[in-house]
Design a protein that fits this description.
The protein is α/β, with parallel strands linked by helices and about 290 residues long. The chain contains 15 helices and five strands. The relative contact order is 0.13.
């Protein structure tokens, strides 16, 4: 998990990590989300009794979302009560106007970017930039919506002069990953961090000796635990759109930040490449 997890409000932590919770953890998450006022005025035993679970189960949940214990979680939750939960996570209604829906979508995306900044781990990001700058070859992998992000990353990083390729087809991903070397880096993009194809791909990458960077949602997931460098986005689920949609805004921003860092640190080379690209593209203009 990111080193700045304490910066994220309690309810946003719960929403961001919800898809990673077990059934019992979701029961506790729902209780805290639905009855925050009751929770801050209750003991851990009272909360546990209401849900027919053990005190230790509630305590472990508080640790799971990054607090030292139930009391620390209550203090954080109490500070958020002054702002209604529905104002933080507004649900889109069928009766909303087009403008209201647009505003909520924009707000959700802004919250995602803000929360992702709160999880920003400077050491991990520095390590990722260093790995990319020193790689012989860089391969971006993603399926579905994450595949679109991988292609966008290829489009950007082609300007760096580095050897770049992106694969969105599972078979091509496996074939290419098997030919990587210890001088290469694989950047795997997966919102859930538990996509079976991506995890199998990571095993092939590891066998090749290549370095691995993972871009995944802010939660403990198999991908985040197995890659050499995990980079996190933070987004929340809603009724009308998966959290993966707003996560793509954060994924794109993370890749933009990597790209700008790489371009800045290799400024002289980058300028030559940009000039060549500009000349080539100018031939297509009338």
């Amino acid at each position: 998990m990111g080193e700045n997890m304490e910066s994220i409000p309690c309810l946003r932590r719960i929403h961001a990590m919800y898809t990673q919770f077990s059934e019992k953890e979701r029961k506790i998450a729902d209780y805290i989300t639905n009855y925050p006022n009751k929770v801050i005025h209750s003991t851990i035993s009272q909360v546990a009794e209401d849900m027919f679970v053990a005190d230790a189960t509630v305590f472990r949940f508080c640790k799971r979302i990054g607090f030292n214990g139930f009391q620390a979680m209550k203090i954080a939750l109490a500070s958020e009560i002054s702002t209604p939960v529905q104002d933080i996570f507004e649900t889109i209604q069928e009766t909303d106007s087009e403008k209201e829906i647009a505003e909520k979508v924009f707000k959700s995306n802004m919250n995602t970017l803000q929360d992702t900044m709160h999880t920003f781990n400077e050491n991990s990001f520095h390590h990722a930039v260093h790995i990319i700058l020193n790689a012989r070859r860089i391969e971006f992998y993603g399926n579905g919506g994450s595949g679109i992000i991988a292609l966008d990353a290829q489009h950007k990083f082609l300007r760096t002069g580095l050897q770049i390729v992106a694969y969105t087809d599972t078979h091509l991903q496996m074939m290419s990953a098997s030919q990587l070397t210890p001088q290469d880096v694989a950047i795997i993009i997966s919102y859930s961090g538990s996509n079976k194809d991506m995890l199998q791909l990571l095993e092939v990458v590891k066998e090749s000796g290549a370095k691995s960077i993972g871009i995944t949602n802010f939660a403990k997931s198999p991908l985040s635990q197995k890659v050499d460098v995990p980079l996190f986005t933070t987004s929340c689920e809603s009724d009308f759109r998966s959290g993966a949609i707003s996560a793509r805004v954060a994924q794109l921003s993370l890749i933009d930040a990597l790209y700008v860092n790489v371009m800045t640190k290799g400024k002289e080379k980058s300028e030559k490449i940009l000039n060549k690209i500009g000349e080539a593209l100018s031939l297509r203009k009338m």
